[in-house]
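Materials and Methods. Structural model of Carboxylic ester hydrolase. The 534-residue sequence of Carboxylic ester hydrolase from Lentithecium fluviatile CBS 122367 was retrieved and submitted for structure prediction as follows.
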Amino acid sequence: MIALQWFLLASCVLPALATSPVTRSKAGIFHGRYLSEFDQDLYLGIKFAPKPVRFAPATLSEDAPRTHFNATQYGVDCTGYGSDTTKLVAGGWTTLGEDCLHLNIIKPKTKEKNLPVLLWIYGGGWQQGATSDPRYNMSYIVQQSVLNDKPVIGISINYRMAAFGFIYSKEIERTGNQNLGLRDQRLAMQWVNKHISAFGGDPKKVTIWGESAGAYSVGDHISAYNGNNHGLFRAAILESGGSVGAPLNGTDWYQHMYDNLTASVGCATVSNTLQCLRNVSYETIAPYGYQGLEWFHVIDDSFIPRYGEQSLTSGQFAKIPIILGTNTDEGFGVTGVNNDSQAIEQLVHSKRWNVNETVAKKLLELYPNDPALGEPYGWGNRTWPENGLQWKRYQSIATDLTMYAPRRLLAQQMSKYEENVYSYRWDAPKFNNTPTTIGVNHFSEIPFVFGNTEQQITPLGNDSANLALSKMVMRMWTSFAYDLDPNGHGVSGIVSWPQYGGSTSNFVFRADKSYIEDDDSRAEGVAYINNLVR
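The predicted structure was written out as tokens:
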């Protein structure tokens, strides 16, 4: 973020900024950008925290009510690792670094005051993701909120990832610096709570929203601090993730990853390895923030006080309205599982859940090797032997362990305290079915819920049925953020989405015709999984 010394600016800069939207707040004077095609004011790259000390909690930006800030461009994104990051950097969409704790505000032009806020937390396994990703452009969903007469403000936030955001070891535990990426998210919410009213938003009407690791983050915020959300949000939307998972592994899992990192940057032999890691240059440490194994969240006795199942079953979570759901065939690209022994081996040693051999054998009993019952669902007895003879069976177990069963548990437990709980199953593929597309897998809903027809990374396409579905789901999400009911979407001919507590059902999103189904699939296996503590 560039602090503008207003009275010393060159004269050639003044006209451009003079016609831009300006918001004065305790945080500063922000000069944004007007987006005429959407009739929106954008305030991009706002720093909610100064550059954090590496492997330490960030702090909230100090108030600077007289300082001018240029908020017309995205800021630096947090360091990430993976194919999405590679595409964004190569395409010139982003630059990466440690001074990355920014947020973006998309505000519609409207006379309505005290607008609800829809706050987006991107996914990417907690290893990659960026608010500059065009697939997360919030202008389209904010536009639909206005067209539906339920205007909301859209906000997207950055947070530290991989080792920079989730490093853990005995050394980290002693300093109390766990779960830094989640704390970054919480800090962004605090900034929004403190300053969004200056931008026309209502701090009491914030809905936090995420997908995959973003949804798991939302689930963590629901259970954080024994359910005390400190008034930072009133509702949540969780796509393909929840309050249980990814696995809460201890130092016995992460210590060797920490030790590998110290060895990689020349810190293994010093007495204070953590301080050494902080002192090495960014260029030295950045290549080693992800070395083939993911850094996840951990129990820290405060933000994450216990296993997610324990928080849910004991009622120690924030009781709020939620939308939550999974895609029909979440899957994880598992290959090479040909027999029971290989399945047990992968289940026991996977980094995505904590399962012992006894549990693995029970899961194989509950999920028999019958292709007609396996995932991807609805393909009958067809198999893909090139992926493994038990691929469909293992995909079913993997999906239910990580997403489908936890989704049902959260819906059931939240419904005991809150009426406005809405569960869904997404059954529309992200691409038209082709020989290379198998099922409705992870991330399939993202092109629809953001509705950006221009981005070609994961294109929505121009099919009229897909466009209609996209319009409907965008209006459902923003209607929920506006008045806690997704049924206020204003689209005719759509079946009413019932509250989960009164129906135990899912809204099934399809491009041809959406419908309601009973939430009772794979009942015995799901019940067993939800009685585990992982």
